[in-house]
Design goal:
It is a single chain. With 163 residues, this protein is an alpha/beta fold. It has a single domain, classed as P-loop containing nucleotide triphosphate hydrolases (Rossmann fold, 3-Layer(aba) Sandwich), CATH 3.40.50. Helices cover 40% and strands 18% of the residues. The protein has five helices and five strands; from the N terminus they run αββαβαβαβα. The strands form two sheets. Strands 3-4-5 form a three-stranded parallel sheet, sandwiched between helices. The protein has a two-stranded antiparallel ribbon with strand order 1-2. α4 links the parallel β4 and β5. α1 packs across α5.
Amino acid sequence: MGKSSAINALAGRKRLAFFSKTPGRTQTINFYDLGNKARLADLPGYGYASAPHTLRASWDALIGGYLTGRRSLAAVAVLMDARHPLTANDRHFLEWLRPVQVSRLVLLSKADKLTRAERAKTLASTRAALDAAATSSEVMLFSSKSDEGVEQARGLLEQWLRK
């Protein structure tokens, strides 16, 4: 369960975003109308994408340009695997966000696959690493499979959209 599953969970819809068993299927920016003048943008995955290197390299310009050029951007949710947070790719994405003045939410996905102790440790270490990097972000455990963090994340995003 990855990005598309998280989108569906956050939007409260079963089949808004389609997913496959192969990561990296999102290769353009997909927009989802959420009503009330809100739209969700699904950016290409940058982690374990099964896409040619040349295509993945072009995503740098696409994603970086979108994040820095979108004046109406209210918030960004970053999905990281709770079992392996803050990979080199995650850090690269956070660098794209550094100049962007928006609220940030880091969702540590697949939290259901961790023990209680691992969850607490991952949450604390991720928060500490983001604080040390001066990357102001809300961080929460998330699982679209068990619904952990879904309501909290949805509530926080709705709160940010009302600003």
